[in-house]
Specification:
Length: about 290
């Protein structure tokens, strides 16, 4: 009989946090340049100053939308496998966006400690850290039980700063993209591109150890998390992402609203992939279910 969760993997942005926080890295870099008198909001045309961050955000979403539209016109999407191919194809959009940011040297000159402190200021969902702390504290002395953060965010140091004070987690268990640092521990404006798509997340999740006699749980909020949620013994959707719900409906993936009274609807001993996901509106529901106790 399965009695415990031996592997807990969580997305970060909009799962643990109230909103996406990748922009917080840029906010820090832009603010620091302005404070040093290097660039101000009126310096957009200067060669040494990158365009406003809104330029990169708008261009990214425009290219992503166009890519999905073009892909749909040339690739029929009638199965979950077809959808996974779309997710994998988005890698080129992510790389193009990151390389554009690198070209303009947007994220250079940030000290590692500044990223950590920026992480402390990120607003998190109610009860998120309480739930993660319960799990990490219970399994702190048992190396067979693991908590990981798996994210497409751009700074492991910022994510660590967001969680370190309240959750027992080491930097090695934060799996994400990351900034490259120079010899003075400041960012060089270059990104380590390691977690770009939902398929990257799945490949990483697949390598994590699930101790014998335990189950795995993945908590996420978006389409990027779908492969991992379906791969885990229990996949939990945080909130009401419209795109994710659309794809679940399209591919016959049942969404079970609520966790406390519905935990017995999945055979926890089954190692086969599930086509059922739980949906919660907040971390309090996970806390009350005692799933991670």
């Amino acid at each position: 009989m399965v009695t415990s969760v031996g592997l807990l993997v969580c997305d970060f942005d909009e799962t643990i946090t109230q909103r996406d926080s990748t922009c917080k890295v840029a906010e820090l870099a832009y603010k620091k340049r302005a404070q040093q008198g290097k660039c101000s909001p009126s310096d957009d045309c200067f060669l040494d100053c990158p365009p406003p961050w809104s330029y990169f955000v708008e261009k990214y979403f425009k290219e992503r939308k166009e890519h999905i539209k073009h892909w749909g016109e040339t690739h029929p999407e009638t199965s979950l496998e077809d959808h996974y191919k779309l997710l994998g194809s988005l890698r080129e959009v992510e790389i193009a966006s990151m390389e554009r940011v690198e070209k303009y040297n947007c994220l250079s000159g940030i000290h590692r400690n500044e990223l950590f402190e920026q992480g402390r200021r990120i607003e998190k969902r109610d009860y998120a850290t309480e739930v993660l702390k319960i799990y990490s504290t219970k399994h702190n002395n048992n190396q067979d039980n693991n908590l990981y953060i798996l994210s497409t965010n751009w700074s492991r140091d910022m994510l660590l700063g967001s969680l370190k004070d309240s959750v027992r987690i080491e930097k090695e268990h934060i799996l994400s993209n990351n900034l490259v640092f120079n010899e003075t521990d400041c960012t060089a404006g270059i990104l380590k591109k390691e977690v770009l798509t939902g398929l990257d997340k799945l490949a990483i999740f697949n390598k994590l150890n699930i101790p014998e006699g335990t189950i795995s749980v993945y908590i996420g909020d978006s389409d990027t998390d779908l492969p991992c949620m379906l791969y885990a013994n229990i996949g939990i959707i945080m909130g009401n992402n419209v795109t994710l719900t659309k794809y679940c409906n399209k591919f016959g993936i049942e969404i079970i609203d609520g966790l406390v009274k519905n935990i017995d609807k999945i055979n926890l001993n089954s190692k086969r992939k599930q086509h059922k996901l739980f949906r919660v509106q907040g971390w309090k529901e996970i806390l009350d279910s005692k799933l991670l106790d």
